[in-house]
Here is the input.
Amino acid sequence: MSAIRDLLTALRGRPGVDAAIVIGRDGLVIDDESAPGFDRERIAAHVPALLAAGDDVGEAAARGALATAVLEHERGGLAVLSVLSRDAMLLVMLDPGADAGPLLYELRRERARLASLV
Here is the structure.
């Protein structure tokens, strides 16, 4: 688990990252690094429904399974969901001022390596 811990610590250390959570397909937290006040268990419990909806959209559009989703919320901030493997997902919560571009690029470029950590 130290490889996952190192990944989460590195993500959490990026400017604007409030939480980095590895979540199982069952909606349970595998590991996380999050700011005080984040209800990681509650957040994680909703992720499988997001994944299922994303997969359904991809299937309907003949685009395949969900790989990455970006959610923007009313009171600011982004949630970036990245599917790492059949069994694990990474959710990164960004504050409203964070630059999501570099994170999205790195997650896409490093998906296979990240998947090997979980």
In short: The beta strands are 17-24, 29-34, 68-72, 78-83, 88-94. The first helix runs from residue 2 to 12.
